[in-house]
């Protein structure tokens, strides 16, 4: 009875003969289409110019940091992926032109959804996003990027922080674009808050030893 119904259907539709090969239709069509296979990672894909990738903490043209430690990015983040601790600059140890700087800055890429809300919230354009997308890691700890990892590299005319503000300028001048490079003679200050030892004190331990090792050996 069932076979009769089956034959009836084939007679009605007229497709019985083609059924065994009809399923290959999609396969045959795909054989003549352009291949979509990408040779990644041998040939990395170029992203769109405004692709949301890894973050970057930017610097002013003289190397001072743009982050003022205000935490607005952390408050804007829907994934609670940013941790910021601000601190006061001093004349002896200055990281940004104004009163405060970001002493601790971390982004947890195990949480981040790369939505970009944090960079919209940043009032100083300290935080932007790069096109870098290779962020995968097998360790959760490695996915927490520190300030040192996020801070932009030094370009020509910059001196690494901490260092003094450009003489004769104030914070507003930096945002007006009046500071275009580090003043002649600008040198990096000693980062006492990070446990660095001043040159004179370090020399008491003997020549050639890195300061960190001398502290360990006391
Ligand atoms: S991109 Fe989005 S999820 Fe990632 S840190 Fe910024 S606000 Fe949070
Ligand atoms: S990155 Fe921008 S929003 Fe975040 S703490 Fe620094 S200045 Fe504030």
From TrEMBL:
Tagged with keyword Heme: no
GO terms under cellular component: plasma membrane
Subcellular location: Cell membrane
Pfam families reported in the protein's UniProt record: Fer4_7 (PF12838)
Predominant location category: membrane
Binding site for [4Fe-4S] cluster 2: 77, 112, 115, 118
Function according to Swiss-Prot or TrEMBL: NDH-1 shuttles electrons from NADH, via FMN and iron-sulfur (Fe-S) centers, to quinones in the respiratory chain. The immediate electron acceptor for the enzyme in this species is believed to be ubiquinone. Couples the redox reaction to proton translocation (for every two electrons transferred, four hydrogen ions are translocated across the cytoplasmic membrane), and thus conserves the redox energy in a proton gradient.
Family under the similarity heading: Belongs to the complex I 23 kDa subunit family.
Descriptive protein name: NADH-quinone oxidoreductase subunit I
Organism encoding this protein: Streptomyces minutiscleroticus
Gene: nuoI1
């Amino acid at each position: 009875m069932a076979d009769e119904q089956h034959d009836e259907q084939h007679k009605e539709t007229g497709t019985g003969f083609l059924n065994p090969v009809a399923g290959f239709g999609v396969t045959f069509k795909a054989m003549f289409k352009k291949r979509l296979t990408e040779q990644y990672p041998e040939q990395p894909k170029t992203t769109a110019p405004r692709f949301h990738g890894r973050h970057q903490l930017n610097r002013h043209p003289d190397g001072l940091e743009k982050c003022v430690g205000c935490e607005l990015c952390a408050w804007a983040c829907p994934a609670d992926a940013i941790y910021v601790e601000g601190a006061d600059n001093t004349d002896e140890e200055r990281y940004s032109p104004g009163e405060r700087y970001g002493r601790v800055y971390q982004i947890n890429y195990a949480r981040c959804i790369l939505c970009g809300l944090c960079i919209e919230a940043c009032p100083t354009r300290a935080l932007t996003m790069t096109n870098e997308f290779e962020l995968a890691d097998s360790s959760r700890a490695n996915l927490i990027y520190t300030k040192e990892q996020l801070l932009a590299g030094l370009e020509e005319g910059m001196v690494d922080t901490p260092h003094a503000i450009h003489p004769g300028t104030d914070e507003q001048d930096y945002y007006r674009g009046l500071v275009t490079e580090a003043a002649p003679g600008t040198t990096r200050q000693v980062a006492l808050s990070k446990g660095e030892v001043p040159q004179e004190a370090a020399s008491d331990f003997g020549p050639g030893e890195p300061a960190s090792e001398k502290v360990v050996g006391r």
